[in-house]
């Protein structure tokens, strides 16, 4: 029997990032309709009818060959209205944020109405907490809830999976993967939209909540069975300054979502995909090319993290975002020139043990692989590309994706998401050393 529901609904469609997701979705529908089901239909949902009308008009103007979406006015706080929206679609693309405040009702509604779900979430507390509270019910409902299905954290998850597989192809046992992230701004610099910043403020402010959540995850799943010698951190140079001879630049620990998402994947894979699981130790760093930029970053991060611990401090950070980020955060988001001229890369160095060198806590790995993933501006250029590719993969390979509350690595492990992105070409994959 044919499913009468729309294929996809973009929820929170009027937001800064969501509008770019809609543009990417329309671009793909217009130029690569074969990447979607033949009976594809879609809708947009948000609180403001006027803003939805504006998006509909924009779609009709910019994408003449694409069917305009249905429009659904909904307030996430209206449980019945939200469930009516989720019941009317097969997949929700949730672009509302911060997710710690707005995500749970959407997940609950999707599970209640047997609707699949993907989001852009880069908030580890929400992801981990949702897995604990909703994985069993999502599995029982036959629903896939896929978090962090965009820049947070698809490239990093693919990079870890790819380097582990390359080690196995060399006959080696994977032991560790390190990721080094770098931004390459254009002449006009970079900028961040306010909602992204708002999520970071509350994320830093609630970091203390992660401890009990991770203890509960460890109690349920145990610790991932890593092998080999403990992964050493980079060695300090000039006191506290970190450098790594393999990477040009100074290093800061990566403080966004990727390490948490990768480690959750390492925890879940032995239980959800035991035949292919090979958990590794993981380290992640931000590469900063110049000492001056490093010192400025450390200064602003110190002030930011200190204020984010307190309610009054978070109020200050949110009231004066430009002041506390040296103008990096803008309520209007980045300019088009900034989006067009900014790029990023993630370099992965994976280490493992050859068959002649069995893993042990005292023996160093003797096999390594280095790869790199790169693309256009991370938050608002690469994110829509990755998010829509994740949607296309889900729609075409649904039978390969487990049910439950999932990370990208767990969800897309058996799919061709990487091949789809590589063929598209806007996110690049390279092997630097093998």
Structure description:
Helix 10 (291-308) packs across helix 11. 44% of the residues are buried. The chain has a seven-stranded parallel β-sheet, with helices on both faces. Strands 9-10-11-7-13-14-16 form a seven-stranded mixed β-sheet. Helix content is 45%, strand content 21%. The chain is an alpha/beta fold and 434 residues long.
Secondary structure topology:
Layout: E1 6-11, H1 16-31, E2 42-46, H2 49-62, E3 70-73, H3 79-87, E4 89-94, H4 99-112, E5 116-119, H5 124-141, E6 144-146, H6 154-169, E7 173-184, E8 192-193, H7 194-205, H8 210-221, E9 242-244, E10 247-253, H9 258-272, E11 281-288, H10 291-308, H11 311-319, H12 321-324, E12 329-330, H13 336-341, E13 343-353, E14 367-376, H14 378-396, E15 404-406, H15 408-412, H16 417-424, E16 427-433
Parallel strand pairs: 1-2, 1-4, 2-3, 4-5, 5-6, 6-15, 7-11, 8-12
Antiparallel strand pairs: 7-13, 9-10, 10-11, 13-14, 14-16
Helix pairs in contact: 1-14, 3-4, 4-5, 5-8, 7-10, 7-11, 10-11
In which order are the strands of the major sheet placed? Answer: 3-2-1-4-5-6-15
Main β-sheet description: 7 strands, parallel
Low-confidence stretches: none
Number of strands: 16
Fraction of residues in helix: 40-55%
Question: Could you say which overall geometry the principal axes of the C-alpha atoms support?
Answer: globular
Main structural class = alpha/beta
Radius of gyration: 21 Å
How far apart lie the N and C ends? 49 Å
Number of alpha- plus pi-helical segments: 16
Strand portion = 15-25%
Overall pLDDT score: 94
